[in-house]
Amino acid sequence: MQISVTTPALLFPAISLFMLAFTNRFLSLGARIRNLHATYRQSPEESVRKQIENLRIRIHMIRRMQGFGVMSMLSCIFAMICLFQEWNLPGQFLFGASLLFLVISLGISFMEIRISSQALDILLEDMERGTAEGGKDGTQR
């Protein structure tokens, strides 16, 4: 199979958009952790602690997603350089590595999304407990 320099170049916009999405997730989780930390310091509740633990796991996953995204971008750049120099076999291997790193990054992203639903379950459980203990608004009777 013969690939040209433009083939890896097609991957650049996709990798860039994924990296932007991963960075936005990281920043929003960071803000959420800061808010929960302040809440936890005022009144240490178990549900808040569980949410913070969940967010810690997700932050580590996002860091790995970003790392594999960067590796994908670098492999793509080196593949383009090799193909430009007409070193076809190393260029093809580097392009394949770039695709593999991107797939790993997206796989971790999928797992992180699944874990984020657990954080929502924690909130829903807390809300249900409040409703079961009290009235409609969750207040004690």
TrEMBL record:
What are the transmembrane regions?
6-27, 68-87, 93-111
Please indicate if the UniProt record lists Transmembrane helix as a keyword.
yes
Keywords assigned by UniProt?
Membrane, Transmembrane, Transmembrane helix
- What InterPro entries does this protein map onto? DUF2721
Q: What is this protein called?
A: DUF2721 domain-containing protein
The upper taxonomy is: Bacteria, Pseudomonadati, Thermodesulfobacteriota, Desulfovibrionia, Desulfovibrionales
